[in-house]
UniProtKB/TrEMBL annotation:
Domain ABC transporter per the UniProt entry, residue ranges: 5-229
Organism: Flavobacterium arcticum
Domain of life: Bacteria
Family matches, as Gene3D superfamilies: P-loop containing nucleotide triphosphate hydrolases
Record's protein name: ATP-binding cassette domain-containing protein
Keywords: ATP-binding, Nucleotide-binding, Transport
Upper classification of the organism: Bacteria, Pseudomonadati, Bacteroidota, Flavobacteriia, Flavobacteriales
Length: 301
């Protein structure tokens, strides 16, 4: 699969603040990537560096396999990293015409992109009459005018109402379906879970996870178990090869797996050891629980 962007040991300090710590990851064509992390984790800094508006401290990144310099490469990138900013007294169409003039793009693209973001019927309304969601959608249309290889969005749904959030997410999915690679930053787990195929989880400038969103959710899960004699239960479980670790939670044991294990198989195994369970439940972690676990693990180091 074609590499759109590769980031190698990128590091950024703002004076004493170590905002990005030696991060590396790759963006492949056709995927939707989410940089996920709480506020202050270095998402915007990372996007700023690859878009050449923030200076890196060390490390490197290369666009499109390093065949073009950053300036040329960025002509194939559409990005929205600030609040949408257009001329308030001009219409949406007039604003996009200006963008076309600056970038040397045919005006025929304007209607195509306005249609994609659902603003064609409002193209003659002045920008100042737009809701925040419409402004954000216009910014997306503007960023797409030159048919970029990749669209970059920083917190695309911040400040929007639920309907506005949904519209933006649907548009992002639509753009991805049309074949454009997407990289978005978000502090919202459910946003990344709903919109993205791949995630880079950041905390305090460090990468905690990179990989598919499915890979994050599809761990083997854990059993909740309880028996009359939880001590004997725990001793029997500790000998099972598919069991990674056991935690106690009030009167139940939480049993984490390192390999898939059927409830029936586990039940038979325990019965053969003379243990009857009163309670057995297989649970899968949601991405949210895993995200909290990932971030908790690192902070306890
Ligand atoms: P995020 O986008 O994930 O919220 P940022 O990249 O904006 O995170 O910020 C990462 C860290 O760098 C934070 O501690 C933030 O305060 C700091 N930071 C960001 N921009 C600047 C700046 N221009 N000067 C000093 N510190 C900054
Ligand atoms: Mg940010």
């Amino acid at each position: 699969m074609e590499t759109i962007l590769s980031i190698n040991n990128l590091d950024k300090r703002y004076g004493k603040v170590h905002a990005v710590k030696n991060i590396s990851f790759e963006i492949k064509k056709g995927n939707v990537y989410g940089i996920l992390g709480p506020n202050g984790s270095g998402k915007s800094t990372t996007l700023g560096i690859i878009l050449n508006v923030v200076n890196k401290t060390s490390g490197s990144y290369s666009w499109f396999g390093g065949t073009t310099d950053t300036h040329e490469a960025l002509k194939k990138v559409g990005a929205i990293i600030e609040r949408p900013n257009f001329y308030p007294y001009m219409t949406a169409y007039q604003n996009l015409k200006l963008v076309c003039d600056i970038k040397g793009i045919k005006y025929t693209k304007i209607d195509e992109k306005l249609e994609l973001v659902g603003l064609l019927d409002r193209k003659d309304s002045k920008f100042r009459t737009y809701s925040l969601g419409m402004k954000q959608r216009l910014a997306i249309a503007s960023a797409l005018l030159n048919d970029p290889e990749i669209l970059i969005l920083d917190e695309p749904t911040n400040g929007l109402d639920p309907q506005g959030i949904r519209q933006i997410r649907d548009i992002i999915k639509q753009i991805a379906l049309l074949g454009t690679t997407i990289l978005l930053a978000s502090h919202l787990l459910d946003e990344v879970e709903k919109v993205c195929s791949h995630a880079v989880v950041l905390r305090k400038g460090e990468i905690l996870y990179t990989g598919s969103v499915n890979g994050m959710t599809a761990n083997e899960g854990f059993f909740e178990l309880q028996a009359d004699d939880n001590i004997a239960l725990k001793a029997a479980l500790a000998q099972h090869p598919s069991i990674e670790k056991i935690e106690e939670n009030e009167d139940k044991l939480l049993v984490y797996l390192n390999n898939p294990l059927e409830g029936g198989t586990l039940n038979r195994y325990l019965f053969e050891k003379g243990i009857c369970v009163n309670h057995m439940l297989l649970r899968k972690n949601s991405l949210e629980e895993q995200f909290i676990q990932l971030t908790a693990k690192k902070s306890s180091n």
